[in-house]
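Researcher: Please predict.
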Amino acid sequence: MNRRRLAATAHALVAEGKGLLAMDESTPTCNKRFAAAGIPQTVDARRAYRELLVTTPGLGDCISGAILYDETIRQQDSHGVLMVERLVAAGIMPGIKVDTGAKPLALHPGETVTEGLDGLRDRLADYALLGARFAKWRGVIALGQGLPSMACIRANAQALARYAALCQEADIVPIVEPEVLMTGNHTLARCQAATADVLAAVFDELATQGVALDGLILKPNMVLDGLDCPEQASLESVATATIACLLEHVPAGVAGIAFLSGGQSAELASARLNAMNIQAQYAWQQLPWPLVFSFARAIQQPALDLWHGDASNRQEAQEALLHRALCNHAALRGQYDASMEDHVVPDALPFRPARLAAPGHPGL
């Protein structure tokens, strides 16, 4: 383990007011979203969509890293250029999702544990050769009557810690993602208590495994009311509850915190991230880590809806993707405003139509 390299990579991912683009949807998940949008569920369609994402001009100005799926990290675009090369040419660091999904937890109905540790050491070595500098593993925690159980929390925390240790052994920065789900009618206070329990268990297991915190990024949920809760907390209340929970349970040595969007609307995810960074600027206690984003649907969905599988919509979809990335870029400085939604691409970063070519070669 090269701890200095790990720390440098981790800090680069959360530096300079940038966040991460999560484009690591598994094939079944990607196909499900394509089906809902009326897009063919084929390898070629997935390639075309992911090519659209990684070749968006200006994206590297606000995105530091992109989390890929196994198919994508091995894939070439329509010009025979590896997707990874496209990202690197844009100044975006390639990463990889390495878990194999949440499976039912034995003896605990309604709860899951994420699998994928078998063979992970060899897979990480392979991904490193393919260009991955960081990885991601998601643990899923459901809230409900009697949930989560301590068995579920501990099983997922241990899996996250073992994954993180294997990543650092391979000089790959682990993104540790314990997600308390938004589904349900729970209150903000209930989510805060559950998130606190999960974070406490995760960092306990990380310490047991000897994981270096300065070479790690935490990807937590925001503390939120359940989607079915009749009263939804204000932006300021969400920010206060989330920051309080993090300050109590996340060690100062962690390189950074990159929030997941978890099914929030694109605009609401930006607004809540913005409220947290405003509070961070004026907090009596300076936060020890930057608060950035690692969003999937909250950045991608508007672009997917506009693209609709039609090549003629490519530029408009890329404009929408860049717009969402810029909104979140502004939120990291506490400068996001709802009025930004009226302008697709701010003048600060004018959209330039892409002319695809191999990195370093003339346009085709």
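Model: The CA atoms of residues 12 and 64 lie 7 Å apart.
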